[in-house]
Every structure is written in C-alpha cells, then in structure tokens.
Amino acid sequence: MRQSVQAFVSRRSLLRLASLCLLTLSGSASLAQIAPRSVTAIPPAQSFLGRNGMVVAQESRAARIGVTILDRGGNAVDAAVAVGFALAVTYPRAGNLGGGGFMLIHLASGRDAAIDYRETAPAAATASMFLDARGNPDQTKLRDSGLSVGVPGTVAGLALALAKYGSGRFTLADLLAPAIALAKDGFAVEDDLADSLPAEKGRLARWPSTKAIFFVGDDPLREGDRLIQNDLADTLRAVAERGPAAFYAGPIAERIAAAAREAGGIMTADDLANYRAIERAPLRGTYRGYDVISMPPPSSGGLCLIEMLNILEGYDLAKLGPSADAFHRIIEAMRRAYADRAFFLGDPDKVPVPVADLAAKEHAARLRAQIGAHATPSIAILPGRRQTGEGRNTTHFSVIDRDGNAVSNTYTLNFSYGLGLVAPGTGVLLNNELDDFTAKPGAANAYGLVGFDKNLPAPDKRPLSSMTPTIVLKNGTPFLITGSPGGSRIISAVLQVIVNVIDFRMPLGRAVTAPRLHQQWEPDAVYVEPGFAPALLDALRARGHVIVATEPHTAANSILVTPDGYLGVADRRTRGSLAAGY
Ligand code: DON
Description:
7-stranded antiparallel sheet, alpha+beta, 23 strands
C-alpha cells in the first residue's frame, strides 16, 4: 500500500503542493471565523449513571427529550430521532435539517447498521466548480456561497433510521412533536447558543432571513432572550404530517434550492427530489479483544480510527501509560492514517476505495514497522505543507436503551450555523458542507485536510467526512458509545477516548476530559490542548515533534456500560452538554 502511495507522488505533484500552500495560507482568514473563544483549561465533565437508559447530547433540552422517549417505551433509535430533530431547534449551529451526518446503530439482537445521510453535490456539480479564473481554489465559493451548499440529508436519514430500526411504538410525527413545540413556543437562549451567536455575528448578519430569526435589530439574541422559530416549526410540522416527501418535494424543497441558487449556487428542486439516505454495512475492526464498529466511507472516520487502533495494538500502551513514549506512538499512528485518508478515500459510490486493504492488520503492521524513536517528518511519508483549520461546529450524541440497543450519531452543517443562511420561509439553516471536497488535488479544506483526486466534486457525490460515530462492543454487547464534533480532530479525539478507557484504564469522566492532542499528517505539527505536563511536551519535542498549543475543539459525549448501569459523560468543552438518564 505504502509503495503505491509513493509511486503516486510525482515531482509535479510536489511542485503543485508547494504552490498551493500559499493559497491555503491566504485563505486562513476564514479559519479565524470558525475558531472558538479562548479556553485555558478543559472544564470538568458532567456525568450521570442511569439504570434504564441514557442520552448524552450537546444541548440539555434535546437530551431530556431523548430520555422521555426512552422512558415512554421507545428504543434507542426512536430516542435518537427525537434528539436529532430537537437539536435542529435548540442547537442550531450544528443540529440541523439543512445538513447531514451519520448514524451508527447496534441492536440488542446483534445486528449493526450504518445510516449515511451525508449531503450530496448537486447534479450540476463539476470537478472544477470551486476554482477561480486562474484555476486555484476559491475560498468564497467553497465556504461562503450557495455553491458550498450540499443537498441536505438529515430529514431522509432520521426518517430512514426510524422506519427500519425504530421500535414501531412512535410515528415520525410523535418524535417531531417536541421539536415543533420548542420551535413554536421558543426557549431561552443560554449555554453554547449564547456563546456561538455573538461569535458568528458577522457571518449570520449577511443574510436578512437569518437576522430575522436570530437577531434583534443588528445584534444577535443574548443570554436569556427567547428564540422563536415559526418557519422552522411549520417545516417540521409539514414533515410530521406528510413525511420526508414534504421536505424533498414541493415548496420547502423549492425554497431551499432557490436560496442556494440566489447565493450563487447550482442546486435545483430535482436535486432534493433525488436525495436518498443510504444504509451501509458498518465498518468493523478489533482492538485488544473488543469489536469496534464505526462509519465506513464516505466518512473517513471509521477507517482512520481502525487503522490507528491496528497500529497501536502492537504496542503495550497499558504498560507505557499516558507517557511521552505512548503519545509518540499515538502521534505516529495518526500521521500515517491521516496520510492514507488524503490519498485513498472518497465517496465509495463514485471512486474505488481500498477499504479492506487499509483496515487490514497487515497494513498496520507495515506502518508500525516504519515508526522509530523519533518523529517521522510528514514530508517523508508524503509531501505537502498545510495550515490546519479548527472547529467544533458539528454535534455528536450517544444513546442506549434498557435492552442494550445503542445509537451513535454525528451530524453537522459544517461551519457553525453552516453557511449562515436560512432558506427564506423555511427556517432551515443551510450547510456549507461541500468545502469537505478537495477543490483541487493537493489543496486543503477549512480543517487543513489535504485531499487528492478521489475527493474531487462530482454530480451526486458525497464529500469525504471525518465524522466518527463509534460503538465499541465487548463480548458482542455495547461497552462504549462515543463520537465527537471537531472537523479533522474528530477521529483523533475518538481514538484517544478509546485508548484512555481500554489502555490507560481511565474512568470515563477522566477519559473524556483528559487533554487531547492531534496530528493529521499535514501540517507537520502536533496540536495540544491545555493540560499536558510541560515535561511530557518537552519529551515529545526531544523526539522531533513540533508542538503547537490549541484550544479545545472536540466534545466527545460518551456512554460506558458498567456493571452498575449506563454511565453517561457529557464533554463540557462546550457549555450545556448533558448526560441524562433514568
Ligand atoms: O464532515 C466533516 O468532517 C466536517 N464537515 C465536520 C465539521 C465539524 O466537525 C466542524 N466542527 N466541529
């Protein structure tokens, strides 16, 4: 595998990468817009032990709605669908109807399912759609125009999950009812919503339809103000009455497509009519006797995670403990898996993706053999230099019910509030997900992730994602349910939660709050959250790692199944996450 990578990297691509570097750096202004506020320490997690069921989500009202559904006899999928719709109202920067994501399901019967409701490129998409007149990536087209809007998948995805894996005790309308009430009656702005609205003021204020909902005059709603979303309530009600068809055909679809087009896009109502959520076979790996179930492409998350775990399985991390020796190996595993991501991954329905090869233990063994005592320069693996972006604008929730059915769901609008544009008359915030495509081979997206030909835009294609909803099984039953927002940092965050629990034997609360580090092949740097011991960082520097301080960007809302019950841990890297159980 590695040989084919090296053969792939010609002198020409080296030069192309070097010249594209300048472009990426010049696009970094928009990165600042998605960086969160300054955080100097990781806040303590909130946890709850539930005997019968548990929901851990990034917003407390939505989490409680999920628990109510469980308490009324719903299964984990019913609850997840209710939480997904509720977050579209209560956590509008990432919860959504106008975006997409991935739901991983483990049923107590032993069956696993992966629902891919990732956005698609419109039928009129072309490989060069994000280039400027000189053939270079155009950051405005990629992130700040209607061209960046993918055909939304969330309504189709949640409806498919319910139809196939719900308990049958709740209709879609039943599960939409709490979201409709919250949208119509409104609720007090608080927690992360109160933090994110002013942080995104500039991007939101560009669109009158958005200002009309989230602003009073020229200022965003403030802590304690009431957020009422009447158009969104009507849209949700239409879906409750007529099913997903109400969203994907007729006036709502027409308004969404028109809003994207008026903002410079190419989406048509037919694109919405043709959207399908897809059920895929989940990706399965093993780690020290546990089964790891995660998301297959078009997310890179599961494959990168399994590749990193396969590499690390060859080391006695438990003996090393959370030391420089252990983190050096973890970093080197990340570097190699993210390099493979860049070259080999894309939408499996459009390009060949060597899933089995990359997930194989033999591939990991070859990569492990390259890891020495010192950092491998990324340029020695594959060439390139990129600036990393940041973000925690996605949202992850984990659910388990009394029978042991489990759901791990991550969905997003990409940036905080997506494009920032509410399609007029619908209340639906539109995503800017198509920035996850590679605008040009060797170019990086907002998260600094470099890509090549496999992830170029094409009609109906799904951009490569990093979302990593994951369920770890022990003896065939759920042990750990986890996932996170955080752009490129999602995969490394999920890895570290798993390693912290399985290898470092940390209680879940510590496993979630422990500072995390991140390496993504390019740029050749290790991003470290606050809280690592200076001596450990010095030891990593001595091994040749370039250490860069970073603020927290992830939020791994997780559940551990313990002999005493379900232990939910809400990651408070953002305000307002809640583990709620019963
Ligand atoms: O699918 C992806 O990988 C990204 N669009 C996710 C974006 C994200 O996580 C933003 N911040 N949390």
